[in-house]
Amino acid sequence: MISIIFASLAPSLALLCFFYLKDNYNSEPLGMVFRSFIFGVLLVFPILVIQYAFQEEGLLISPLSQAFISAALFEEFFKWFILFYTVYKHAVFNDPYDGIVYGVSVSLGFATMENVFFLLAYGVDLAFIRALLPVSSHALFGVIMGYYLGKAKFGEKRQQRKLLFFSLLIPWVLHGIYDYILYVQRYWIYMMLPFMIFLWWLALKKVKLANKKTVNDENVKNLY
């Protein structure tokens, strides 16, 4: 059991540290980051109940509906909901990059608990591939969600609703594509590899843009 917990937690902490240390302006309070991580852990339980209920009723059983609704929509919506109501309106969310830090922490909390259940069921031998794919993909979806939340909060007010919508829509679509590749493609690895490269490229681009926005905003403040 200890090996399973360690194998589930280690890649999540490594990724969380990576994106946390990418903040070029000011680091977020660790207590708030930890709280967001725990919220992500707790999200697994209601989502599993909802997914199980749909499965028992024979609903959302096609590969398309499982990928885009049962997995992607439920998971990304609940993560977005937690971020919006516990972080977005909080005083600690005070620069655009903060959205990425908290988006990643909630997503990795979820991925860690999901990983524990998976490794308990199928064995710790799968820990490495789980770290490369599900855990890292959740982190990257969190980067993109957090980027648009940061842009919504600190961008133009007239764009706020659209950006909030994008903060859910884009991670949902990307998550759905990820799961659909796993569900229906016989040679899924040949599609997953370029898709994961694209996800990393997109997420790191958002990290750079969020940091640039933060620095530029701070420079403007220093003029007054």
Describe this entry's structure for a reader.
- The protein contains 7 helices and no strands.
- With 224 residues, the protein is mostly helical.
- It has one domain (2-221).
- α1 (2-20) packs antiparallel against α4.
- Mean pLDDT is 89; it is low at 219-224.
Write a short abstract of this structure:
With 224 residues, the protein is mainly α. Helix content is 82%, strand content 0%. It is found in: Cell membrane.
Whole-number radius of gyration?
17 Å
- Main beta-sheet annotation: none
Shape: globular
What is the number of helical segments per DSSP (H or I, 4+ residues)? 7
Query: Strand-and-helix sequence, N→C?
Result: HHHHHHH
Low-confidence runs (pLDDT<50, min 5 residues)? 219-224
- Return the average pLDDT rounded to an integer: 89
Helix content: over 70%
* Strands, total number: 0
Q: CA-to-CA gap between the ends?
A: 56 Å
Q: Into which percentage range does the β-strand content fall?
A: under 5%
Number of domains: 1
- Which class best fits the helix and strand makeup? mainly alpha
Strand-helix topology:
Blueprint: H1 2-20, H2 30-56, H3 63-88, H4 98-122, H5 127-154, H6 160-184, H7 188-221
Helix pairs in contact: 1-4, 1-5, 2-3, 2-4, 3-4, 3-5, 3-6, 4-5, 5-6, 5-7, 6-7
Membrane topology: Multi-pass membrane protein
Protein name: Protease PrsW
Main location: membrane
Keywords:
globular; single chain; disordered C terminus; 224 residues; 7 helices; mainly alpha
